[in-house]
């Protein structure tokens, strides 16, 4: 027993040392780059992507991973086990509270109040909700560092809660609630999708997993989503139905919101775009909001490119083709790009997609898969001959996958299972899919270690 206690104390000290060393690394990197570290999250300064420069320095990113991983591991040691499991079990209340804050437009209401905040009676008034109940919701969020309780029942925005703010007036939102996210930074739309649709579906996942009829199915219409929303349609087909227009519009904006968690120009990093000549054909397979390029998705894509790069459409540099994943014309393609696509599908469907692309490729075609490449929670052996395949391991005694520092990727994995029987994959799993579909994995780039959907797996046609 004494030896065990000594080991626990040694681990606590090692974790504390990692935190201290990581803070020193951040301080040095910030000074060397003449940058600033973002303001404390308890402050009232709104989130601004331009202020994230310091956090995006590679050394700072990795140091941040170490701090989050070590801090969460410290908590798991020092907090009594029953309390830790209880905290995990009731964490769904935070998702519920976030959704309530979003649909009551609390962040927009508090934006006008500034640092002094606003009493919950005034926050509740525009949507006619019970201020006493809303106060309890906001207090839970403030306890999780989203919003600040300035004084009893008086709340203010902080850096985290400001990301829920669309920038629109409350009057404008209430007048046209279906247009709340049009022309916004989009992150609120992503959170509302997760806290409403994904949350509802996740409650059905345990039932689907143990169901005798569904347990062995990997089809996209035998999922927790199907059970929760009582439909036989796959998620993306259901989303495209006219009666789901509000959800479709929100989802399209939500997918754009993923960019907020990515560093600028992330898609340009880790792939030799400069090696492809002017006029090379790049096929964005199933782009848009991640479903197949059907008519509704084409409309959204045209709208996006018209706003962002209208000259590309006028000159024909960007073309739109309605098709599904399982048909692809044979032509001279330089790159097949699948960004955040593979994780929407189970293995058997991914193999069908990749085989379709392989049949349309020639020997010079490159396959570029951009997704979340997750690690096992234990040490793994990767193919050393593949450039970029090995990750730099975290210092002991951190979990080999950095634990809570990358927990979003593992939660996303279950979300993909929930909606479409898809999944986030390890590098070994991606390599196996490529091999089964006549592609060969030749290079890997992991990108920003704390961001979503930046890892790249590069393949060439197998001989």
TrEMBL record:
<keyword id="KW-0949">S-adenosyl-L-methionine</keyword>
<dbReference type="InterPro" id="IPR036390">
    <property type="entry name" value="WH_DNA-bd_sf"/>
</dbReference>
<keyword id="KW-0808">Transferase</keyword>
<dbReference type="InterPro" id="IPR016461">
    <property type="entry name" value="COMT-like"/>
</dbReference>
<dbReference type="GO" id="GO:0032259">
    <property type="term" value="P:methylation"/>
</dbReference>
<keyword id="KW-0489">Methyltransferase</keyword>
<dbReference type="Pfam" id="PF00891">
    <property type="entry name" value="Methyltransf_2"/>
</dbReference>
<feature type="domain" description="O-methyltransferase C-terminal">
    <location>
        <begin position="222"/>
        <end position="385"/>
    </location>
</feature>
<protein>
    <submittedName>
        <fullName>S-adenosyl-L-methionine-dependent methyltransferase</fullName>
    </submittedName>
</protein>
<dbReference type="InterPro" id="IPR036388">
    <property type="entry name" value="WH-like_DNA-bd_sf"/>
</dbReference>
<dbReference type="InterPro" id="IPR029063">
    <property type="entry name" value="SAM-dependent_MTases_sf"/>
</dbReference>
<dbReference type="InterPro" id="IPR001077">
    <property type="entry name" value="COMT_C"/>
</dbReference>
<dbReference type="GO" id="GO:0008171">
    <property type="term" value="F:O-methyltransferase activity"/>
</dbReference>
């Amino acid at each position: 027993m004494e030896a065990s206690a000594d080991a626990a104390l040694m681990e606590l000290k090692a974790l504390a040392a990692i935190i201290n060393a990581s803070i020193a690394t951040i301080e040095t990197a910030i000074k060397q780059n003449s940058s600033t570290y973002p303001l404390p999250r308890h402050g009232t300064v709104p989130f601004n992507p331009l202020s994230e420069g310091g956090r995006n320095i590679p050394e700072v990113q990795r140091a941040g991973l170490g701090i989050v991983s070590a801090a969460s591991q410290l908590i798991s040691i020092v907090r009594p086990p029953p309390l830790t499991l209880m905290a995990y079990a009731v964490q769904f209340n935070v998702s519920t509270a976030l959704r309530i804050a979003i649909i009551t437009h609390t962040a927009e209401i508090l934006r006008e109040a500034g640092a002094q905040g606003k009493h919950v009676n005034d926050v509740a008034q525009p949507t006619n909700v019970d201020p006493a109940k809303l106060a309890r919701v906001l207090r839970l969020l403030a306890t999780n560092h989203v919003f600040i309780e300035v004084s009893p029942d008086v709340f203010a925005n902080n850096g985290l809660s400001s990301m829920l703010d669309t920038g629109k007036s409350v009057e404008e939102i209430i007048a046209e609630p279906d247009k709340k996210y049009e022309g916004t930074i989009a992150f609120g739309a992503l959170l509302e999708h997760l806290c409403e649709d994904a949350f509802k579906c996740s409650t059905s996942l345990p039932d689907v997993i143990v169901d005798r009829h569904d347990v062995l199915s990997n089809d996209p219409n035998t999922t927790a989503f199907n059970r929760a929303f009582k439909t036989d349609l796959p998620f993306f087909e259901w989303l495209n139905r006219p009666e789901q227009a509000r959800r479709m519009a929100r989802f399209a904006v939500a997918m754009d919101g993923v960019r907020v968690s990515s560093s600028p120009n992330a898609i340009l990093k880790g792939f030799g775009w400069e090696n492809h000549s002017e006029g090379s054909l790049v096929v964005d397979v199933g782009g848009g909001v991640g479903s197949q390029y059907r008519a509704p998705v084409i409309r959204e894509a045209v709208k996006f490119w018209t706003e962002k790069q209208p000259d590309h459409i006028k000159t024909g540099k960007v073309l739109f083709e309605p098709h599904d994943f399982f048909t692809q014309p044979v032509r001279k393609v330089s790159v097949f790009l699948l960004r955040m696509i593979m994780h929407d599908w189970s293995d058997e469907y991914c193999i069908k997609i990749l085989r379709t692309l392989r049949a349309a490729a020639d020997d010079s075609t490159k396959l570029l898969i951009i997704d979340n490449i997750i690690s096992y929670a234990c040490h793994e052996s990767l193919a050393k001959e593949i450039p970029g395949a090995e990750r730099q391991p975290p210092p002991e005694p951190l979990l080999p996958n950095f634990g809570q520092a990358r927990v979003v990727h593992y939660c996303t994995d279950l979300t993909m299972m929930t909606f479409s029987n898809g999944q986030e994959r390890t590098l070994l799993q991606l390599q196996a899919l490529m091999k089964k579909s006549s592609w060969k994995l030749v290079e890997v780039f992991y990108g920003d270690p704390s961001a979503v959907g930046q890892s790249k797996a590069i393949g060439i046609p197998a001989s």
